[in-house]
Amino acid sequence: MSYQFPLAVCAEMLWQDKPIEWRVSKLTEMGFAVGLWNWPAHDLDKLEKTKANFSIMNGYLRGRLADDEGAAELLATAKETIVVGKRLNVDRLNLHGTGLGEGGLPVQPCETVTGAMWLKAVDTLNRVADLADKEGVVFALENLNLPVDHPGVPFALAEDTLALVAAVNRPNLKLNLDLYHVQIGEGNLIEMCRKCLPYIGEIQVADVPGRKEPGTGEINYPKIAEALYQMGYRGPVAMEAYASGDPEEAIEAFRKAFTIADAR
Fold first, then answer.
1. Closest alpha carbon to 36 in 58, 65, 19, 8
2. According to the model, what pLDDT value does residue 240 have?
3. Among the residues of the chain, which ranges form H helices?
4. 1-30: per-residue pLDDT in tens?
């Protein structure tokens, strides 16, 4: 008996010559949930008409976890985003340690994270969880990599995001565990999945190097899929990757990697 994880694909990274609503509709036709980045860039009326299952969307527009001004801005823009998330029935609203700007670089880089910043980040995330409880939504904190894509982002490593989410320990605050970023920043993917398992809301994947679909790089995603299944994970897996060639072929490679042929 085979098993396929609930699968999603980031619409922003494929068919970039097509309107976003076309991409969303195409992914829906292919049987996938859909991931989005920043909602202000898109026509919400058109997205709503697609009737897509949106797996995740950026959950804030600006702000930071670890200082008063940044926390206030993050919470204010999270409230705006919740309205949009409810309108599109988005499953999870994504967070980072700080606001990201052009090219994924932090708007306000941070070289050293102090103990006081850790305590403030926990406080901010507790306030996010309070807001999530009140509004009936789920936020997810995503890990990022520092060496290649996101230098200067505080709380970037999966070890960091796990420590924060575990410290808050609230049902409406989860991990968005991005294995592409883990491979670059930390490695040891299966054990990281095991450590994070109680808190995972979504797993995101792309291969390394190049951030392309599974099978194009060094990560053995079929083995990771088997390990996730054996450890009891049944949640969503999302491809947040560019296509090495034809997007449909890339998506089918992703589907194959996360389908367990002999699930027991």
1. 58
2. 98
3. 20-29, 44-49, 68-88, 115-135, 158-168, 179-185, 189-196, 221-230, 247-257
4. 899 999 999 999 999 999 999 999 999 999
Q: What are 139's strand-pairing partners?
A: 93, 173
Residue 242: enclosing H or E segment and its boundaries?
none
Q: Which CATH superfamily is domain 3-260 in?
A: Divalent-metal-dependent TIM barrel enzymes (3.20.20.150)
- Helix axis angle, 247-257 relative to 221-230, nearest 10°? 40
Q: Identify the CA nearest to 247 among candidates 6, 12, 70, 21.
A: 12
Q: Which is nearest to 238 in space by CA: 208, 210, 203, 207?
A: 203
Every domain of the chain and the residues it spans: 3-260
The whole-angstrom separation of Cα 258 and Cα 253 is 9
Distance CA 131, CA 138 (A): 10
Question: Which residue from 126, 148, 152 is spatially nearest to 139, judged by alpha carbons?
Answer: 126
